[in-house]
Amino acid sequence: MQPPDDSKKRRELRRCLERWRTVVERHARGLRSDSRKYAVLYGEVVRRCRALAAASGEEHKALYEDVEKLLQPWLTSEALTRAEKDILIEVSQRCRQAERSLDGRLWLRVGRRWVRPVLRILFIGTVGGLLGWAWHQWGTLLHNTFKGARFEITMALGRLGIGERWILGGAIVIAIAILVLSRTAKN
To answer: What is the pLDDT at residue 170?
Structure first.
């Protein structure tokens, strides 16, 4: 087991390496970075790799040396700019592997990867349940209201005489004619 100070330094190296990988991925997408900031970041990652390699045993020394070898061709941001996209994607993938190797708590990172999708599913399920409940409550109320209104209209129409039915039908025909004529006039 590593001393706590060493694991803290490994996490700091992983964070720096993650920031460097982000720059590489930006270059793979055709975006550029500030060459001075890149030089500082590059120097910090290399310095941390060398310090950890010097202070660690043989089992971890190879990992730090591999990370440093991964960085060597990319001394400047111009080297990233001149590189082909496929090469930068490969460098990014190798960098991700190195980050996973540096992170001693792999199970925690895998667990974090599942948190968002699970929360999304729970949120969608909750919203769907609430909408279903509301639909049931309001749907029943609206159904009963329209059913009652239809019954009232049917009863009222049943009490109308023949002359009153003709007047009501004529009013409906006039309303439809007005609607059609107003639409025609607009066109």
So the answer is: 94
